[in-house]
Specification:
It is a single chain. This protein has one domain. It is mainly alpha-helical. The chain is about 50% helix and about 10% strand. It contains 8 helices and 3 strands; from the N terminus they run ααβββαααααα. Helix 6 crosses helix 7. Strand 2 (about 75-80) and strand 3 form a beta hairpin. The chain has helices spanning about 1-20, 25-45, 90-95, 100-115, 135-155, 165-175, 180-205, 235-245, and strands spanning about 50-55, 75-80, 85-90. The protein has a 3-stranded mixed sheet. It binds zinc ion (ZN).
């Protein structure tokens, strides 16, 4: 009997292990996708555009992208009959990454959307002259414009871990001068917590550690518009932080023309 019991416990552990590790569930990604559509549908329609996230390759294959294990997300665009479509794909592998949160998923979809909506500077040499914002611009858009809107819409998705003392220090130094700053302060704390997931992603994808307490001090002479150019992970991290703190785009990738 005792042997049987321990076997049972072992079986429960094995069944539970994948659940304990899964960071973001399929239904949570669905909620996020619905929220993006609700938030942006109207203004995109006015501009003759539409947003399509995780479009199934065949009708009914709704879990297709969720079942992919690649740790990546992507953006592409098409122009047909005067309508521009912004396609965003987020593979299940990205959402299931260890340390990922719902807010982190929102931030990454915001970055991808930024490729379509963040404006100049644009990447050069795109098919049909499509206007696709450069990486730094997409990062900046994510943390200045898109995340504040999506966080308002998805208040329930807040991360449960409490903010670090350091984050509280940075946010209160920037936003707590007056009572009207409280909303910006709350956004700041939640967004800085979200940066933890960016940190994890940079480590997983490039084995580079980035941090709030350091900065990429390099100064470029001209914004690099090559299609495949990415600023250094620390430079991208600095750009996200600058977005949260309402600062200017860092010189490690951006140069005013
Ligand atoms: Zn990108």
């Amino acid at each position: 009997m005792r042997h049987f019991l321990s076997l049972c416990i072992f079986a429960v552990l094995v069944v539970c292990a994948p659940l304990a590790q899964a960071q973001v569930q399929a239904y949570e990604l669905q909620i996020v996708i619905h929220a993006f559509n609700a938030e942006y549908r109207e203004e995109l329609a006015k501009a003759n555009a539409q947003l399509v996230i995780n479009n199934p390759p065949t009708a009914g294959a709704t879990d297709f992208w969720w079942n992919r294990d690649e740790v990546r997300a992507s953006y592409s665009t098409s122009q047909e009959n005067g309508v521009r479509t912004h396609y965003i794909f987020m593979m299940g592998g990205y959402a299931r990454m260890q340390g990922m949160t719902v807010d982190g998923v929102i931030a990454t979809i915001c970055h991808e959307l930024g490729h379509g909506l963040a404006g100049s500077p644009y990447k050069e040499g795109q098919d049909g002259g499509a206007k696709i914002s450069v990486e730094g611009q997409a990062d900046y858009f994510a943390y200045t414009s898109c995340l504040p809107r999506m966080f308002k819409r998805l208040t329930g998705a807040k991360s449960t871990s409490s903010a670090s003392e350091y984050a509280e220090k940075i946010c209160s130094a920037r936003f707590i001068q007056s009572r009207s700053d409280q909303k910006q302060y709350d956004y700041c704390l939640r967004a800085i917590q979200t940066l933890e997931t960016e940190k994890t992603f940079f480590w997983q994808s490039t084995r580079t550690s980035v941090d709030l307490s350091i900065a990429d001090r390099s100064v470029i002479l001209k914004t690099d518009l090559s299609a495949d150019y990415y600023p250094s992970p620390q430079c991208r991290f600095d750009t996200m932080l600058a977005g949260i703190l309402q600062g200017t785009r860092p010189r490690c990738w951006f140069k005013e023309e």
